[in-house]
Write a structure and sequence with these properties.
The structure is a single chain. By secondary structure, the chain is of the alpha+beta class. The protein folds into 2 domains: 528 residues, Methylamine Dehydrogenase, Chain H (7 Propeller); 72 residues, no CATH class. The strands form 7 sheets. It has a 5-stranded antiparallel sheet, with no helix packed on it. A hairpin with a 7-residue loop joins strand 5 and strand 6. The longest helix is centred in the C-terminal third of the chain and has 16 residues. The protein is globular, with a radius of gyration of 25 Å. 52% of the residues are buried.
């Protein structure tokens, strides 16, 4: 066994479920030499050398302020701080890790995985935080004082959560998941197997809870899948209100057929019905969720002409520092759907793919891209108009330091593509500019749109790289406009920490901090974002939000929205200072008069004299501003 221990998160997830581990070192990893011709991160950024600490880390922020941090409930924290405590050994054993075999100085690091916060969903005044140990539900009626309503203890990792009406869905992938939500896991077996032996009590797939009584969720359904559910996506059928569909992305090993009939981990040439190289589609009858079942297993990586199901590869990646042979794509990590457009974007290990979901049961691949700078296509977001897609690369699997001074700015980054004739066209990369330390796991991860009218803005988690807010209105030139970051959790050891997901919801940013708990934050005005733009974003109120199920954002024709457009046109110098001043004066007068007849007439008269824009973006803003001025509301 090596002197130190490193467990890549993705490798660990697979290893935990396989119960076969190779410990290889989690002390600080020194960055390799920056490849020739590439640019690294800025070591002079205020975020670069923050004080470490779990509860007292240094902080750096611009354009974001922390409102509150709510620690994780006791049941979702490590049961002890002594690595030799029997409770830590038990926690490791429950994960399938032979606790006594782990070096004492690495037990806490690895046991922490079993209690890590993951993804977030919203419904009304309720926030749902997934966790490898279960789900926590909060009341966020007062965002500055979130209240824990209920903890659902139900291990199985990674606990990604979504909601739809009275139902809550939870992903389970790891081999310690049990049908009864028990915490004891299963007996540890000798290594050398592809996975644990069959057990009738094991659960890997999607759990379904009834949340009609939010303080008393009840499991009412469960659908087993061959590789479990690493993530899942809720897919409404706009033509069918009686059912909802779930796209299941499994990334782990295939369970034995003795445990779930029909499962096969063989290569396609040995078994054309292999459980690899596919996703599953679950149909959930809303009136009878207990009858939910897999209704199709789309081969999204198939060559339509030859029928070859393993037709896509990553094209060879050089993110290891050297070019590698092409690797087949046999899984999706995340699929983001935009039902109104009938499209989905799949981040599928070696490829980014565009999918036609007009028939939700039978999604079809439209286009696919790969990139030698990408190690693992992880997640995707559409712009509000659906013309741009942001893909992320989880280089290092989330457990590696990939934002150091010598880490290339195009590795572990976002890749921005525009859609032209339903084809993906690469535009540029985006990565946080600040250098992070050797003990800070950092790479692009989960985020959501911020509903500022006239702009494409995404708030995004970067693990211990903190939160970054990216403006990608011009996908060829994405820029950072705000950030929030803490120092490393541990100054000596590489610990799985930082933000798993950061999402905007009804005026606030909510962050699932893997170790620390739930952060609530707010945007603040800077030279890149005005108070009027923030106020306009706050006017957009969502009822139910699963970020991987995108809905079109629509802004009301309010004077606040008009003011946001005016600020943008001033920033881009699309109008003269005199015209900007006149517009602001007319809007202020209309607000004071509560939109009396005279003020309405003054606004309407200005709508037709805004001028001609030099760019398409400003032309769109001017058109939207004119529409507000002609028929404004308070």
């Amino acid at each position: 066994m090596s002197k130190s221990l490193t467990i890549n998160l993705r490798s660990m997830l697979i290893a935990v479920t396989m119960l076969a581990f190779t410990f290889t070192g989690a002390l600080a990893q020194n960055a390799p030499k920056l490849p020739e011709g590439m640019k690294g991160a800025n070591s002079n950024d205020p975020r670069a050398k923050l004080k470490p600490g779990l509860t007292d880390a240094g902080e750096a922020a611009k354009g974001i302020k922390l409102v509150t941090l709510l620690p994780k409930p006791t049941a979702f924290q490590l049961p002890a701080n002594d690595p030799n405590d029997p409770k830590i050994i038990e926690a490791l054993n429950a994960l399938g890790i032979p606790g006594q075999m782990v070096p004492a100085n690495q037990r806490l690091v690895n046991a922490q995985l079993g209690f890590a916060n993951t993804d977030i969903a919203f419904q009304g005044r309720h926030l749902f935080v997934g966790n490898f140990y279960g789900i926590n539900i909060y009341d966020i009626f007062n965002p500055s004082k979130p209240q824990l309503l209920i903890s659902v203890v139900c291990p199985g990792g990674q606990g990604d959560v979504s909601v739809y009406g009275k139902l809550m869905f939870m992903s389970v992938e790891m081999a310690n998941g049990r049908l009864d939500c028990g915490t004891q896991g299963f007996p540890i077996e000798a290594g050398g197997r592809r996975g644990p032996s069959a057990n009738k009590d094991r659960f890997r797939g999607v759990r379904i809870f009834d949340i009609s009584d939010i303080k008393n969720p009840k499991q009412v359904g469960s659908v087993q899948t061959c590789r479990g559910s690493h993530t899942h996506t809720v897919v409404p059928d706009l033509k069918d209100k009686n059912n909802v569909y779930i796209y299941v992305s499994g990334t782990s090993f295939v369970r034995p057929g003795e445990e779930l009939a029909g499962c096969s981990g063989q290569r396609p040439d040995a078994d054309p019905n292999t459980s690899l190289f596919r996703i599953e589609v679950i149909k959930v009858p809303l009136a009878r969720p207990q009858d939910a079942k897999v209704v199709s297993e789309p081969r999204l990586f198939k060559d339509a002409e030859t029928g070859k199901i393993n037709a896509l590869t990553d094209g060879g990646s050089r993110s290891s520092g050297r070019a590698t042979r092409p690797v087949e794509t046999d899984q999706c990590h995340d699929i983001t759907v935009y039902p109104e457009l009938g499209l989905a974007a799949g981040a599928c290990s070696g490829n980014g793919i565009l999918i036609d979901i007009s028939d939700p049961v039978n999604p079809k691949r439209i286009d696919a891209v790969n990139d030698q700078n990408y190690a693992y296509w992880h997640s995707a977001s559409f712009s509000n108009d659906g013309k741009t897609i942001v893909f992320t690369d989880e280089w290092g699997g989330g457990m590696a330091p990939r934002c150091r001074e010598n880490d290339p700015s195009v590795w572990g980054a976002n890749a921005l593509f525009t859609l032209k004739d339903r084809k993906l066209v690469f535009e540029n990369y985006y990565k946080i500019p600040a250098a992070q330390g050797d003990t800070e796991n950092c790479v692009a991860h989960n985020g959501s749109l911020v509903p500022v009218p006239g702009r494409d803005i995404k708030v995004q988690a970067w693990y211990q790289g903190g939160i970054s807010v990216m403006d990608f209105t011009d996908p060829k030139n994405p820029i950072e406009i705000a950030y929030f970051d803490r120092g490393p959790v541990d100054p000596e050891n590489l610990v799985l920490g930082g933000y798993w997901s950061t999402y905007w919801h009804n005026g606030y940013i909510y962050g699932a901090e893997i170790i620390r708990g739930l952060d609530v934050l707010e945007l603040t005005p800077t030279e890149f974002l005005s108070q009027n733009e923030i106020n306009a974003a706050k006017e957009v109120m969502f009822g139910e939000v699963n970020v991987q199920t995108q809905e079109r954002i629509v802004w009301s024709k309010t004077l606040t929205v008009a003011s946001a457009y005016v600020d943008q046109l001033e920033r881009s110098k699309a109008m003269s200072a005199e015209k900007i001043s006149a517009l602001r004066g007319a809007i202020a007068n209309a607000e004071r008069s509560k939109l009396n007849k005279a003020s309405r007439a003054a606004l309407a008269s200005m709508a037709d004299s805004l001028g001609t824009a030099k760019t398409a973006v400003d032309a769109t803003r001017m058109k939207a501003l004119a529409e507000v001025l002609k028929n404004p509301s308070l």
